Amino acid sequence: MAKTAIQAEAPGPGVPASPSRPEWEDLEQRLAACLALLKEEYLVVSARTGNRYVQFWVEPAQGLHAEAVGNGYLEEGFRLDGGQLAALASLGWSPPASTPEAHGRDPRAAGSPNFHRDFPSPVPWEEVARLAVRTLSEVLRVGAPGELEYKAFDRPGREVVLPGLRIARAPPRGAAAGEPPATEVAVRRLRRRLVAAVRRLPGHEGAVLDGDGDVAVRLGPGLAWVRARPTPLSVRVFTEVAGGVEPGGTLLRRLHELNARLTLARLVLAGSSVFAAVDFPASPFHAAHLEAALSTLRRVASEVGPELGRAAGPAAAA
Fold first, then answer.
1. Which of 99, 129, 148, 189 would suit a FRET pair with 142, their CA atoms being 20 to 30 Å apart?
2. Rounded to an integer, what distance in angstroms lies between the CA atom of residue 191 and that of residue 214?
3. pTM value?
4. What backbone phi and psi angles, to 5 degrees, belong to 157?
5. pLDDT tens digit sequence for 211-268
6. 235 touches 227 (CB < 8 A)
7. Phi and psi, residue 186, nearest 5°
């Protein structure tokens, strides 16, 4: 199975298009797809210098709240001038309603110290992504997507990983630059425990790591893969639930609806396939958690696989 990145259809109308810039257009599509998969989670996309960022809070029942950094949080040399402020207004951003100091004293009363904009449900994901990309590239003057990094997390602060963005993850809070959250020794130890746990499953006595460091497990008529992840030290179990789909607005909206309903698994669009994934902590590792994850994926595949399979082909791009 090819392990590819999340993709999405080209953006629709709403925010005016800018001149063709392939790198930014690619990011726009990937960002739209990733936003559509969030559920009660935050995403911050920022430049590595100058604290320039856009951020999002997604709540499926309500919609999406977006913010672009205001001058109160920008460093000297990066503060917005009159032209940039006018450009933000032309893109539809509402101006800051307070200062960082007032917001810190009482966030509920003070309002946002950033530029902000709300999108009610159903959220126009492509429009939101276009707004973010134009803000970063044209107003905040980020030179290229390679200058960006992201962090994503849920309400309790647990990390959310979005490989489909294809930009670097920001270092965990308190981690030294370049220092991995888990050592290579810890990851190798976890992989050995995963192999041992899979070998205890009926019919998997000869399980081994593949070239990507994953362990394959039979799951109904297909396969699931078990992967050790270092950031933070955890386990991801994933399986393909539908193949041959064409990414489009209808499919993305349906995936968002399903993710809002699911409690343990997450559906991810990768290339022309939809995968279901379950993550769980690995410190300490318990084989029972792996068995529970496999059981969840088996149930999700049987419930949503046939429905998503019917979305394959041109009809999915409607």
1. 99
2. 8
3. 0.55
4. 95, 10
5. 888 999 999 888 999 999 887 788 999 999 888 877 777 788 888 888 888 878 889 8
6. yes
7. -65, -40
